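Q: What would this complex look like in 3D?
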Amino acid sequence: MERGRVRAHGKGGGFLRRILNGLGAGRRAGSTGPASLGSAPGTARVTLLDLEPGDRATVAGLEEPRSPEGRALASLGVLPGVSVEVVQRYPAWIVRVDQAEIAFDDALAAGVRLVPGATAA
Amino acid sequence: MCPPSRPEGRAPGPTATSPEEAAWRVALVGAPNVGKSTLFHRLTGRYVTVSNYPRTSVEVTYGVGRLDGHVVRVVDTPGLYSLSPTTEEERVSRRLVLEEGIDALVHVVEARCVARSLPLTLELMELGKPLVLALNMVDELGRLGLELRPDLLAGRLGLHVVPIVAVTGQGVEGLERAILGAIRAGEPPEPLGRRPDVAAAIEALEGALSGRYAMPRRAIASFLLQGDEDTRAMVEAAETDGGRRALEALRRAAAGTRDGTAYRSAVERHEVARSVAGDVLEATGERRVRVAERLGRWLGRPLPGIPVLLVVLWLGLYEFVGHFGAGILVDWLERSLFLGHVNPFLEGLFRGIPWPWLRGLWVGDYGLLTLGLRYAIAIILPIVATFFLFFSVLEDSGYLPRLALLVDRLFKRIGLNGQAVIPIVLGFACDTMATMVARTLETRRERILATVLLALAIPCSAQLGVILAILSGQPVALGLWVAVLAGTFLLIGAVGARVLPGRSASFHMELPPLRVPRASNVVRKTATRLHWYLLEVIPLFMLASVLLWAGQVTGLLGRVLDLLHPVVGALGLPRQTASVFLLGFFRRDYGAAGLYELQRTGALDMVGLLVSAVTLTLFVPCVAQFLMMWKERGPKIAAGIFAFAVTFAFGVGFVLNLTLRGIGL
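A: Here is my prediction, written as C-alpha cells for the whole assembly.
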C-alpha cells in the first residue's frame, strides 16, 4: 500500500498535526492524486486516500479482502456497492457508511477502492 | 459462570416439569452500541449475573425474565458484526449463538442503520433457529428524515419484525409476544438470498458430517464453505476419520460453486440487504444534525480534542479520583472511622488474648484487621470506586472511541494502535484487570507490549490516588513524577516496538453516537467492576497480612528487610522505605499506602518522596498482576518483565536521586 505524508486539509488541528507528523506518526498513507497510486496508464485507480472531508463515493472493491485489514473493513460494512462519505481524515479516518460512522487508519483507507467520480458534498 | 446447556434431545420449555428445567433460552444478538443491554434489562429485571465466558476475558451477561408467565433465560451477547469473527468478542458471541442451546435469537438493530445490519440478520437466518428482528431507536427516524415500514420488512424477510425504543420501553411488550410466538412455533426462518450453487454445496457438505456437534450442521457446512478456520479445526476434531471425508466433500462442494468464500458471501448478503432496505426505508425529509453529533466530531479532532482530553483527565483523575477519592474519602474513612473508632474497638476486643503473637495476627502492626482490612476498606476501596465510576461514565458516554482515534498515531509509535487505549486506561484502575483485557488486542506482539507498559509505567488507581494525594502539595515533584512515567511509557514502548518481532494490527472501530450517560448503567457497570475487584483484592490483602505477620513472628521479615536496606540506602532513602517496597510486591497499592504513612510521619524529604514514588510506581507488578501476566503471557515473559521492572525501577530511582541531589533540589 502506498505510504506518504498526510497532506494539509480539513479544518483545524494544523499545528498539532505538524507536531504529530514531526514525531513520525504522520508518515503513513497520504495521497498525491490518483496517478500516483500505481495504476496502469489510462485506468486510474481511486482509493479512499483520494477523497477529502465532505466527498462522497461508492466502494468498488477491497484491495486485499482476505487480509486482516480487508476482513476488518468487510466486518464494518465497507464492501462493494456501499456509499461512503468522508467526515474526517486526521488524526484517523472517519467515514459515514449508511448512517453509521466508522473510524480507521491510513492502512485501511488505502485498501478501499472506489468507483471513479467522487462527488463533493 | 455459564448456565449449563440443556441436555441434547430434550424438548424446550413446555414439556419440562420444574421452572428451572422449563426455562427457555433467548440470545440477544447485534452490533455493539445498538441498545442490547438496555433491552436485556427491560426483559430480565433484577436477576442478572455477569461473568467471563470460559477461557476468555469477554464478559457475558445472563438474566432471567418471564414471558407470559414462562421462565426465560436471556443472554446478552457481546457486540457482533458478522458470524465470521475478527475479534475475541465476536468469537464468543458466535459460540453463544450456536452452542448454548438457544431456543430463539433476537437480532437487535438500530432502525436508522437497517441496511448495514441486515447482512447479519441474513446470516442468523441460516442457523435454523427461530429469529425475531427488533428495530431499536425507531423514535430517532423522524429527526433523521427517514421513514421505515416494519410490516413490509417482515414480509420481505419472513420474520417477526418489531419496532421498539428500549430506553423508554416502547414496543417491548410486543417484542415479548413475538419472541414467545417464535419459540412456540419453533419454525426457523427460510434462508434468503442464498445462491442455488451455494445452497447445493451446503446441502452436500451437511450430508458428509457425521460427528457430534453442539451447533446445527447446516451452519457448520456454511462456515466450512466460507473457509472458516475455527470450524475446520472443530470438524477435524469431531469426525472419527479426522475430518478427511468432510474435507474431501468440502473440496468437491467448493469446486461446484462460483465463489463461496466469506468475502464473496458477505458482498452478496450486503447486496440483498441494500435491496431490501431500499424498499422499506425511505428518506422523507431533511436530516437534522444534533448537538451531540457535532460535539462527537469535534472531540475526534486534535483541536479541540486534545485540550478537552487533558481537561477530562485533570477533572477525572486529579480532582475526582485524587482529591475526592484519595483525599476526602480516604481521610474520613481512615482517620475518623478506622483509626478513631474501628481500630481502638478491635484492639479492645482482642485484648483478652493472652499471647501477643496470636493477638498480633488480628490486631497490631501487620494485623489482619487493623492493617489488611483498614488498607482494603479505608484506603483502596474509595480510590478504586471513584476510578471505576469515572471510567464507567467515559465508557457509557461514547467518549472512549474518540480517545482511541485521537491517540492512534501516537500509539503506533510504541507498537500499539488506538484500540489499546482501553486496556491502558483501564490500567489506571487496576493493572491486573487491564493485563487480562489486553488479551483482546489482535496480535501477540501488541499483547506483550501492552503487558510490559502496564507492568512498568501505568500506576493503578489506588497507587495513583495515594501518590497524587502525597505529591499534590508539591507541584515540582508531581510534574517530575508524571514526566518520568510518561518518558518511560514512550521510551520503553518505542524500544519494544523495534525489538519485538511480528506486526501490529490496524486501527478500526465504529464510533457510537456521543450521549449523556445513564445513571443506572453507570452504577451497574461500576458495581460489577468493584465486585470483581473486591473478590480479587480482599483475599490477597489478607494473605499479605498473614505472610507479613508470619515473617515478623519468625524473624524472617527482619532478615529480608536487612537485605533490602543497602538497596534503599543506595537510593538515598531511609531504612523504613524497605518495608514499603516489600509491601509493594504484595500489592502496588499496599506499598503506596505504606508510603502515605511514611509521608505523614515526615520520614521523607521532597526528593526522598519523589524517588520512592517513582521507584515504587516502576517497581515490580503486584502479586496478582504477576500471576495474571504468568497466566496470560506465559512464565518466560512474566519472569522477564519482572526482572526487567526491578532492575529498571531501582536504576531510575538511583539516577533520579543522584541527579536531584546533585543539582541541589
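A: To summarize the key features: Strands of chain B lie at 24-29, 48-52, 59-67, 70-76, 104-110, 131-136, 146-148, 160-163, 281-283, 508-511. Chain B has three domains: 13-185, 196-257, 302-662.
Q: Very helpful, thank you.
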